[in-house]
Amino acid sequence: MVTEDDVRRVALSLPHTTEKPSYGTPGFRVKDKMFARIREEGNVLLVWVAGEGEKRGLIDSEPDKFFTTPHYDGHPSVLVRFGAVDVAELTELLTSPPPRDLKCALRPS
Question: Which of 1, 33, 46, 86 is 20 to 30 A from 64 (CA-CA)?
Fold first, then answer.
């Protein structure tokens, strides 16, 4: 199980990452491109993924950990239950190859 503090610590350990509120909750960005945010429920993390294929793969393989809602249909993101992942898995999710938009943000200016 991870906590909001775990999410913040892992996210902010990544290069160029800042925390900025998004919809009233903590959001994590690289050069103002969001890659994760804690949802209003407080125990769910929204994480950008490489695409619909990765999203479906995560949800289909481990629906107790990963899910989506109709609001995110067609969006390259997955919802992650805090209670279903540990810090090592959270770290992997946040440090796996980023979506194309975020890769551009990570390039040196």
Answer: 33
In one letter, which amino acid is 91? T
Nearest to 78 by CA among 49, 42, 107, 108: 49
Closest-CA residue to 26 (of 13, 12, 16): 12
Contact 95, 48 (CB under 8 A): no
Report residue 14 as tokens.
Answer: 């990544």
AA letter at 61: S
pLDDT tens per residue, range 16-59: 999 999 999 999 999 889 999 999 999 999 999 988 999 999 99
Side chain identity at residue 42, one-letter code:
G
Look up residue 53 and give its amino acid: G
Q: What is the C-alpha to C-alpha distance for residues 40 and 94, in angstroms, rounded to an integer?
A: 19
3-state secondary structure of 77: strand
Identity (one letter) of the amino acid at 12?
L
DSSP code of residue 1: -
Q: What angle do CA 3, 6, 11 make, to 5 degrees?
A: 130
